[in-house]
Amino acid sequence: MDKETTQNNNFNIERVLVRPRVTEKVTINAENNVYVFDVAIDANKFQIKEAVEKLYNVIPMKVNITTVPAKRIVYRGKKGIKSQGKKAYVYLKEGDKISIV
C-alpha cells in the first residue's frame, strides 16, 4: 500500500461522519444500541463502519444508510430549499455504547 493511499484513507475516515443526529427518536433508539449519524453524501457502509471503529473504539454489527431528500421550505416569507443529505444507522453489540454528549 502506498503512503499516499494511506493518507487519503485517513482523510476520508475523518470526514465520513459529519455529526451525530440528536433527536427524541434517536435517543430512544440509543437504548437499543442503534445510533444515527449524518454522513458525507459520497460515503458508503464500509467507510462508515471503519470511521465508527476508529473514532469511537466500538465494532458495529451492521450499518444501514438512508438518503435525506431535499425539501422546499418557507422561512419568514422567503422560499428556499433544504439541501439533501445522507444518514447512517449504526447497530452495536449488546453492551457497547457511544457517548455522544
Structural notes for this entry:
Helices cover 33% and strands 37% of the residues. It is globular, with a radius of gyration of 16 Å. The strands form two sheets. A four-stranded antiparallel beta sheet has the order 1-2-6-3. Strands 4-5 form a two-stranded antiparallel sheet. The protein is of the alpha+beta class and 101 residues long. The N and C termini lie far apart (36 Å). It has a single domain, classed as Alpha-Beta Plaits (2-Layer Sandwich), CATH 3.30.70. Strand 4 and strand 5 form a beta hairpin.
Keywords:
101 residues, alpha+beta, 3 helices, 6 strands, 4-stranded antiparallel sheet, two-stranded antiparallel sheet, Alpha-Beta Plaits, single chain
Structure in a nutshell:
The chain has 101 residues and is an alpha+beta fold. It contains three helices and six strands; from the N terminus they run αβαβαββββ. Helix content is 33%, strand content 37%.
**Tally of separate helices:** 3
What's the helix-strand series? HEHEHEEEE
Portion of residues in beta strands equals 35-45%
Question: What is the H level of CATH, i.e. the homologous superfamily?
Answer: RRM (RNA recognition motif) domain
Task: Please indicate the count of domains.
Answer: 1
Q: How many strand units?
A: 6
State the secondary-structure class.
Answer: alpha+beta
| Major sheet description | 4 strands, antiparallel
CATH architecture: 2-Layer Sandwich
> In angstroms, what separates the terminal alpha carbons?
36 Å
CATH class: Alpha Beta
- Write down the overall geometry: globular
Average predicted confidence as pLDDT: 87
- Kindly report the oligomeric state of this protein: single chain
Radius of gyration: 16 Å
Neighbour order of strands in the largest sheet: 1-2-6-3
